[in-house]
Amino acid sequence: MERVISFKDVSWRRDGQNILSEINWEVKTNEHWAILGLNGSGKTSLLNIVTGYHFSTTGNVTVLGNEFGKTNLPNLRKKIGYVSSSLEKFSQLLEQETVEEVVVSGKFASFGIYEEVTDEDWKKADSLLTALRLDYINGKTFNKLSQGEKRRVLIARALMCDPQILILDEPCTGLDVFSREEVLGVMNDIVQKHCHLLYVTHHIEEISDVITHVLLLRDGQIVASGPKQEVLTGESLSEAYKMPVNVHWEEDRPWLTIQQKKFSLS
Ligand SMILES: Nc1ncnc2c1ncn2[C@@H]1O[C@H](COP(=O)(O)OP(=O)(O)OP(=O)(O)O)[C@@H](O)[C@H]1O
């Protein structure tokens, strides 16, 4: 399959307002995208269309070869993993579960295990914990983990059903620099599992070498999209962030600075 996601002239209207306008976007095989934009620029709305929780008002959406309107959404959603920063609100439900139980529950898309778990499932959960460098917490309950460990367990949980697309929605929010680098470091392992990453962030320095492409949104419209080196320029980001900024690269990672002389809060 050449195209993983295709948006053609997609708009999404709510309360008489265009939340997304004329989105033309394609994710191809072996591409991994970061989605950037200010608060309210439309990132979550776009992802809700990818997962079939919103229907576009106009335009055509195809995800993993399924054209929306003609497809079985529950089946499609099984192929899409979603790790949201707000998922941790729900993680209270998982507090007393062991990390292995939390990971296995991803197979059933439930919080808690209400179906039969096979030996193979437990083995798979163990190997995912190993892939996410979490062997050392085997047997611990979820409530005893650090924020960074919890995030990685939730990523392992999302991988339990072999998603073809993995959405990581601000996975490093609230993490210290060390924990953030640990989360970023496991992305290579995820890519080796042949799933396509959609990585939402407010911090361009989280765009590690695994990410190949960037979609830049402003007020529900695309400012720029394409290979990251072409999109992550001072010019495009200044337009998206509505303030003058510079980008510099260090070892294939971008960093943002604000042009202080031209920017004032007053
Ligand atoms: N169901 C809805 N009904 C009406 N307006 C909505 C709805 N969902 C989102 N919006 C509006 O659409 C705009 C884009 O919201 P969205 O959550 O997609 O932005 P975002 O880029 O994900 O923001 P953030 O970075 O804060 O998470 C906002 O102005 C929001 O208020």
Task: Give the tags.
globular, four-stranded antiparallel sheet, binds adenosine-5'-triphosphate, Rossmann fold, alpha/beta, 266 residues, nucleotide-binding, 29% helix, six-stranded mixed sheet, AAA+_ATPase
Radius of gyration: 19 Å
Q: Oligomeric state of the chains?
A: single chain
Task: Compute the separation of the termini in Å.
Answer: 51 Å
Taken in chain order, the helices and strands follow as EEEHEEHEHHHHEHHEEEHHEE
* Sequence of strands across the biggest β-sheet: 6-7-8-3-9-10
Give the C-level CATH assignment: Alpha Beta
Total number of strands: 12
The CATH superfamily is: P-loop containing nucleotide triphosphate hydrolases
Structural class: alpha/beta
Strand content: 25-35%
Instruction: Note the main sheet.
Output: 6 strands, mixed
Percent helix, as a range, is: 25-40%
How many distinct domains? 1
Which architecture per CATH? 3-Layer(aba) Sandwich
Which molecules other than protein and nucleic acid are bound? Answer: adenosine-5'-triphosphate
The unreliable regions are none
Dominant shape? globular
Q: And the CATH topology?
A: Rossmann fold
Task: Give average pLDDT, whole number.
Answer: 88
Total helices: the number is: 10
Protein name: Iron complex transport system ATP-binding protein
Membrane topology: Peripheral membrane protein
InterPro entries: AAA+_ATPase, ABC_transporter-like_ATP-bd, ABC_transporter-like_CS, ABC_transpr_CbiO/EcfA_su, P-loop_NTPase
Main location: membrane
